[in-house]
Each structure stands twice: as structure tokens, then as C-alpha cells.
Input
Amino acid sequence: MIEWNEALDIISKQELSRFYRSPEIAEKYAQAKVHDDENYGGLANYVAYKQLKWDNLDPANPEFLKSNKDIKITRNRYPYYFEEDVVHLVVWTKVPIPSDSNGVTTEARKTINKFIDSYFVKKHGIARENLAWFKNPVILQTIPSIAHFHVLVRGSTHQKIEAILNDSVYI
Output
């Protein structure tokens, strides 16, 4: 099991391949890949059209994290094996996350941090020290065709997590 401080260390060192799923979740994930391939033409189609309920992947605004219509937050269907009080969310966006050879660009990192601060901290009252985010490199992404980054929320109530997931006004 990955403890909070270990997760923060992995993120700060960008050693994201060290994250792993529990055996039970890994098995469910493998089964879902087969199911979604057979029934939806792949995980990306399942996520885009069934889970996110997007009609298309065309952004309403070409700027990253600037339109509510281009953003959705979900629980990770197959979360990494974090300690029990850590909830693993995914922020999906129709706009590609600006990246360079070092990962997320400095400007995109600032935009994501601003988004985290305004949406999770100010709007939903999550303490900043109980939040962490990361974006997997393409080689580790399950669904590289839909831009997304991961948010870890530690020690929150079920009600706050549900409020975050049921809200649709992100900006």
C-alpha cells in the first residue's frame, strides 16, 4: 500500500512508474480493458462517451482549463493502491495539457496549481496539504488520447468528495 508521504515523494521525483494497483484492482482493470475493447471499441471510447458523457472531444475553448464544458472530474475507476483515506480522482480535459520534454510545461503547471487552489481548496474547502496532483507520461497512460491529470485527496469526507464529483462549475 502506498502511504501519503511516499506518494508525495514519488510525485516530487517524477518516479510515477512506482505507483501500482492492488491485485484486486489490477484484475478488474485487465477485465475492463477486454470488456471495453469488445463493447465500446476501447477504454478511451468508454471513458469519453459513457463515463464523461461527452458527445465529442472538440474543446469549447482552445485554452487549457478555461471552459467548464471542457472539464470533468471523476473517481479513477482503477485507482492506484493508496492508503485508505486517499481518494484518487482524475481531471479530464478536452484541451491537451501543454507539455515539453520535461513533462508538463511551467505555464501549464501554474495553470493546474491555480485550478487546484480555486476549485479544490477555495470552492470545496480541501486543505492544500491534503492535495497532490500528477500527470503520467504518455508511456504510463491508460488513455493517452484524452488529456487528464490525477488528483489525490487525503482525509476528506464522503460528502466533500461527492460535492466535488457532482459539481460542474470548475472555473
The radius of gyration is 15 Å.
